[in-house]
Amino acid sequence: MNLKTVSTQPFSDQKPGTSGLRKSVPDFQKPHYLENFIQSIFDSIDSKDGSTLVVGGDGRYYNRQAIQTILKMAAANGFGRVLVGCDGILSTPAASCVIRENQAIGGIILSASHNPGGPEGDFGVKFNTSNGGPAPEKVTDAIYARSKEINEYKILEAADINLDRVGSFKLGTMDVEVINSVDSYAKLMESLFDFPRIRELFTSGNFRMCMDSMHAVTGPYAHEILEGRLGAPEGTVMNGKPLEDFGGGHPDPNLVYAHDLVEILFGSDAPDFGAASDGDGDRNMILGRNFFVTPSDSLAVLTANATLVPGYKNGLSGVARSMPTSQAVDRVAQRLGIDCYETPTGWKFFGNLLDADKATLCGEESFGTGSNHVREKDGLWAVFFWLNVLAVRGDSVEEIVKEHWKTYGRNYYSRHDYEEVDKERAMDLMAHLRSQFPTLPGQKLGNYEVEYADDFSYSDPVDGSISENQGLRIGFTDGSRIVFRLSGTGTKGATLRIYLESYEPDSSKHDLDPQEALAPFIEIAEKIAQIRQFTERNEPTVIT
Ligand code: G16
């Protein structure tokens, strides 16, 4: 076995986005591209000698090849041990769990999340730190800085490790343990939720569920936990086999891309409960029979019902949501007398709040919910949480959400995405919008008076770090909001996201279609940002 030092040239485009480095597979296959980024990560880790690293991915195309490279580079860079998921599989929340359980120095998760996969699809590399969470900005900045000056990387010349079964191997002096991908995670779920009660729900014969794993990473987890440990009938999990191209689908659990599930839940003889998760298993979509729960409402409902779940029976220290997420959870927090934090988009911003026990539950409008059990959002966790609440309350999903609105009022909410827009035009739209901000406060737009217009900036209450330019907000005096942001996860052109929210306390007005309820704000957004003109599109690509 030979330790090689390979000369290389920096790439200028290795700046991590909202969630790691995401590029197309052909980009990652360029000679030295993956190696440069991995070496930049390793160079940013202090005291890695002899330490433990976790490696796994969502099973997408290029996962296995990348893992072999990373293992050989880890061995050449002095790590003592690498834990790698069997078949190269580890969902993002399971990787977070394994990092924490084994006091690892960090982990590398290979995923482009909900982006499509396959030889022409997307690939991604995320680095998580020893708390199990996504690397904070100061770490990703250091990785990026390193990637711009790198001139060599280290790799061991050795045969590939067999990832097909659990086992222990040596790569040079480094130990490689191929671990069961599901075990630790399943045990953690069992410690949080009332499994016997959920099992009763499934075996009662009065409850049916459909879980769509979208041919992505949660298949093995859902089969084992739902059908294995919780007694749900076989067939409850659909699209449960991870495929390298996700069966040609777009593994994004929303009403557009999870259409198989949506058809079932909105069809005749629909089951009581439906859920879907994304490529790497950190996102979730929750459906009832003929009923969609927005991620923002889901966070609010889970917060209001948390004490029904064993893992949260003593209450919550606080909650947190990303800025564009609706303010529904704020109302619950207020009633519970707990703090509610508003962070920029990106799960990494929740890490400090969770570590400092300022927040117990966190959530984002982008179909992400999670808690302090790991340091990532967790798709299946949200599903088990809902199942636990359903089992205890005995009400339907729709009844639970409608009762919630009755108590707290309804935050109508929708996100309009314009995907693959020309980058410069998208930047121009934002600049044009921002230029109007000084004169907006006090103005009437339609029937609504602007209270504030600003560029969201976040000051982390734990480490004092400041993150600026996190989205343009226009807030109205009645609490409604329009937020404009450019996505940090797309790989082609720019994705413009427009988040719309209004508040309706009157329960006789809670049954409107959100697009109808939000129509005045959709009109204001168009007028003020000239979306059609700048994007050269007549309508959004995706509405959620
Ligand atoms: C990532 C981040 C989330 C973020 C989402 C959308 O999710 O972890 O925090 O909300 O992207 O980000 P953007 O609006 O910038 O595209 P995932 O599931 O893709 O890792």
Features:
544 residues, binds 1,6-di-O-phosphono-alpha-D-glucopyranose, alpha/beta
Topology:
Layout: E1 2-7, E2 21-24, H1 25-28, H2 33-43, E3 52-57, H3 63-76, E4 81-89, H4 92-101, E5 106-110, E6 122-129, H5 137-147, E7 152-157, E8 167-171, E9 174-179, H6 183-192, H7 195-203, E10 209-212, H8 218-229, E11 237-238, H9 259-265, E12 273-277, E13 284-288, E14 291-293, H10 295-305, E15 318-322, H11 328-336, E16 339-343, H12 351-355, E17 361-364, E18 368-371, H13 379-393, H14 397-408, E19 410-421, H15 423-435, E20 444-445, E21 448-455, E22 458-459, E23 466-467, E24 472-476, E25 481-486, E26 494-504, H16 514-517, H17 519-529, H18 531-535, E27 542-543
Parallel strand pairs: 3-4, 3-5, 4-9, 10-11, 10-12, 15-16, 15-17
Antiparallel strand pairs: 1-7, 2-6, 5-6, 8-9, 12-13, 13-14, 17-18, 19-26, 19-27, 20-21, 21-24, 22-23, 24-25, 25-26
This protein binds 1,6-di-O-phosphono-alpha-D-glucopyranose (G16).
